[in-house]
Amino acid sequence: MCFGRCARCVGYKLLILALLCIVANTLLYFPNGETRFASEHHLSKYVECLHGILGGGFLVLIPAAVFIGLHDDDGCGCLGHEGCGKSCAMLSSVLAALVGILGSGYCIIISALGLSQGPYCLTHPERNWIYPFTDSSGGYLFEYNKWSECQEPQNIVQWNVTLFSILLVLGGIEFILCFIQIINGILGGLCGLCCSHEETYVC
Fold it and tell me: What is the pLDDT of residues 1-35, one digit of tens each?
């Protein structure tokens, strides 16, 4: 069935996106490749929400594995009807897609909040660890001259903005792909149920 091939294609894309989310979230823990800021808890609170590792990562790997496995489904049957095995599998993939929707949605929300609040850094001249851009409501993103207020970690504003933006985009793409699979799964399931076991499933 073309619906199964489509699902497998979506699954492979989600697999790649989930792995990228895990890598991006991991990098957020190590500004400039340094580990001391994580051990000293001098990171943004949104970095520790695991939105890329858990949300856009593992929760998206679940539907990715399900979608990829749909192509190899032999249609062993369900409810006593051998011919509707693929239909039931396609309909069940909708539940997996909903898990992906939740994971990617979580990734999107936390990434947006992380961008809005800005980094946690040692500022100049106060020399305190604070969120210097909290009151800007994301306006600091376009005020590059203020980025130098953060002294440590070095280039933390660029680091956070880049990685949170990447996670925001990746989460958005995951969300769209999971939504597409919801539609694909419903159509594939209903189409298969309408076709008899003797037909060629050209719906």
Answer: 566 778 889 999 999 999 999 999 999 999 988 88
**Alpha-carbon gap, residue 97 to 84, rounded angstroms:** 20
Rounded Cα distance between 154 and 2, Å, is 51
Write the DSSP assignment of 73-92 as a string of letters. Answer: -----BTTBGGGHHHHHHHH
SS3 call for 121? strand
Q: 150 exposed, middle or buried (CB, 10 Å; 0-12, 13-18, 19+)?
A: buried
User: Which of residues 85 and 161 earns the better pLDDT score?
Assistant: 161
| Beta-carbon contacts of residue 190 (< 8 Å; ≥ 6 apart) | 87
Q: Where are the alpha helices (DSSP H) in the chain?
A: 2-28, 36-39, 59-70, 85-117, 156-194
Q: What is the pTM of this model?
A: 0.83
From CA 63, how far away is CA 61, in angstroms rounded? 6
Judging by beta carbons within 10 Å of its beta carbon (0-12, 13-18, 19+), is residue 137 exposed, middle or buried? exposed
